[in-house]
Amino acid sequence: MEVDRVISISERLQDLLKNAEKEADDIVARAHEQVERMVSKAKVEAEKKIQLARLGQDIDEYLREEEEKVKKEAEKILKEFRNRSETSKRTAEERLQQAVELIVNEAVME
Amino acid sequence: MNQSTVEVEARLIERIVERRNTLLASAETEAENILKAAEEEARKITEEGDQQILGVIGSELRAIRDRILGRANVEGKKKLVEMREQAISRGFDEAEKRLIGIATGEDDSVDYWGFLKRLIVEACSSIGGGEFLVSANERDTKLLKRRAQAREVKELLNKTLGGDIDLVVEAPTECLGGVIVRNREGTKIFYNTLKGRLLRVRRRIEAEIAEVLGVS
Fold this sequence. Notes:
The complex is a heterodimer. By secondary structure, chain A is mainly α. Chain A folds into 2 domains: 1-58; 59-110. Chain A has 3 helices and no strands. Chain A has helices spanning 2-54, 60-94, 96-109. The longest helix of chain A is centred in the first third of the chain and has 53 residues, at 2-54. Chain A is elongated and about 135 Å long. Chain B is α+β, with helices and mostly antiparallel strands. In chain B, 74% of the residues lie in helices and 9% in strands. Chain B is built from 6 helices and 4 strands. In chain B, helix 2 packs across helix 6 (194-213) and helix 3 packs across helix 5. Chains A and B meet through helix 1, helix 2 and helix 3 of A and helix 1, helix 2 and helix 6 of B.
């Protein structure tokens, strides 16, 4: 009697385990399906964007991004010019008297 | 049901439940990893697509780059040129102040009378001939009209140019110093004013002055 009971429980537990294995397989399978959808969607979208770009459409965002990037580079260039200008201005101020002497001498001795 | 049977059952249930939980947890982890890898792959696909698009619209991107960077370079260079001009002009403005000081006698580092004579000789030599009209500012005109000074200038001209040179001092004109000389016929004129000399000096040695000022 007791042996029967243990066997019955054992069988039910085996079923539980089988169901769990199936459920686990389903989880992984669902993940794979999701992956396929995800990758396929990315491919389709990328291809669509490439085709539109070839027609010159939907490229505003790329152009805007490039413009923002290049504007930052331009700022750096202007900053370098400003620095050069400031440095030269200081040097010119330091050497002003030397230049004035030269000009006066040239004007008098010309 | 004896105690040992219950214990066996309990252990069995416990083991199976534990196994079930492990199986499901492992499946969840595997699914998460699969999805993460897929997200990465999708991101790569999008990135590669973007790269291809950048290649397709390369000429538009280059145009943007050239336009913005070109403008920045032009603007920057313009600022440098403006600064250079300002620095050089400041040098010449200061030099003009010094020359005014010399002309008015406030600055005696240069013998102005000697300088003025030289300006007249230089102008007459350049024009050529034997009859000249000279004009200067009020102060210098008075000086040139004084008998002793007039004789001194005439002697110097006779000696330098040869012959009997005729020099007429005209009515005063507006200038900082120096002279304007013309021939009798008025066909040749030489501006040997301080301003005129400064202009010629600037044309001649502006690059050298820029070099001295460190703005070349």
